[in-house]
User: What shape does this take?
Amino acid sequence: MKSVSHTMTNRTAELPNSAPITADKRRFSAFHAALRRIIRAIDLYSKKVNKETGLTGPQWLVMNEIQLHDSIMVKDLADNINLSPATVTTILDRLEQKSLIERQRSRSDKRRLKLHLTSRGVAMLTSAPKLLQRHFVEQFAALETVEQRQMIAMLERIAQMMDSPSDLTDAPAAEPLKACSE
Assistant: This one.
């Protein structure tokens, strides 16, 4: 068995019959694997919620945001959940067809729509599973506030680093979470 040689100056390890693997490549690989685990966990849980409620993850996000900010306008809603207004409008159409939300024209500006949950929408959110897995919520809540803020800041930084106007066509740049800046 050939031994692995370590080169300190260029931070590589040469393995038999393979290209050199840099420490940076290992870190990026570890980062990517962790990110994939998060995405997979969210995807699996979203499928479970969809099966139980008939709501997709984005529909649940929209309804939750409307519940948090009754009478919110479509553009503000889209900004808050980092989706385009066109995407949110499509989601709102589906939720309105299910009688879970209602749109109300602003009295001061007829071009603007205020969004509200219907009583059926409120009941759906009350009985639906939460967006994040309970065990995650419990573990996160048990952390010190400073650690919670650090985790949020790091995730926001990752999201910001991943936002690239040339790569993204539908989503606006991620804004820091307003609720967490308190």
Summary: The chain has seven helices and six strands. Helices lie at 23-53, 57-68, 74-81, 85-97, 119-127, 134-142, 145-162. The longest strand covers residues 101-105.
